[in-house]
Amino acid sequence: MVKQFLKNLFKKLSFNPFSRKSHVKLGLYGPPNGGKSTLANRICQDWLGEEMSSVSHIAHETREIKIKEQINIKNKKGKELTFSLVDTPGIATRIDYEDFLKKGMKKKDAKIRAKDATKGVIDAIKWLDNMDSVVVVLDATKDPYSQVNITIIGNLQARNIPVLIAANKVDLKKANLDVIKAAFPQYEVIGISAKYGKNVEDFYEQLFTLA
Amino acid sequence: MVTFQFIPYHEIENLSPAKRINKLLNIVKEEKIVLMEGRLKKEEEADLIEITMEEISPKFRGIELSVIYPNKDKQDFSQKVKGAFANILLGNRTGMTIVGPASIVKKIEQNPDKVELFTQDNTKRVKRRKKKR
Question: Which residue, A40, A208, B87, B107, shows the most beta carbons closer than 10 Å to its own?
Fold first, then answer.
């Protein structure tokens, strides 16, 4: 308890002798199907040569917290950054197993998926306290003014956790980066395509200023 | 028919965060849309989502949530000072929180000066069921 108090105190004073750069936890947060796992895979492929999570067009494919330790990235100046990447389930306020039925799932599987998805949302929220920095992954083709987005970002702000917004899927015609920038003017917003690797170099560069 | 229930700020003012959330969820589970004066704290909004997820069942499929709050960046200095005094004297009553059951409310769009609430189209479902019978 005393250690936690001192940790919080030093964190507020921007000096934390308990933290080490090698243990920075970088979380990927956002609504379902924004591309968190695709981005996690992109990062892991680029720097570790392996994938981290499975991806699907059906929402709530990631239903439990996934962690990849010791990812070491380098920028053009040769600076290095090591972090643990935490891929989290998408946060939602509603989960209806019938939505999965519409995607062709069997009723039993749809109900299991819905149940696991609710647990995933709870875990994702609980894990907010463990994060050192967070990349909020939003689908650039969708309306950013959803309450889930506002609640996630508001909670990160309340916890003084540095935030970078990755506006994903900019390869799609419907993507509108300006709307996302206008919705969250206080944060750095970077447009990327995690699937095709568009602008990921700039994204990695932004991680150095975030962590 | 859609039923709205208004909750004035004084009804939740002295409640603990857990009781506030339970009050909102109990009304929503009665298939009513809550219009609450003021807003929850950010942490309470996260707790609301968390507790909603714990209670999801085939009958209760979640909520739709929206918070309308004036943009303080658009306020001048005197408005900000007045607002701060009002908050101290009366509590933070600024804004409005809308919480509806997912079975009734399809989505709430905030854009950001207007709010549009879309309800589920249940008539199609009823027609389909009748045909099957």
Answer: A40
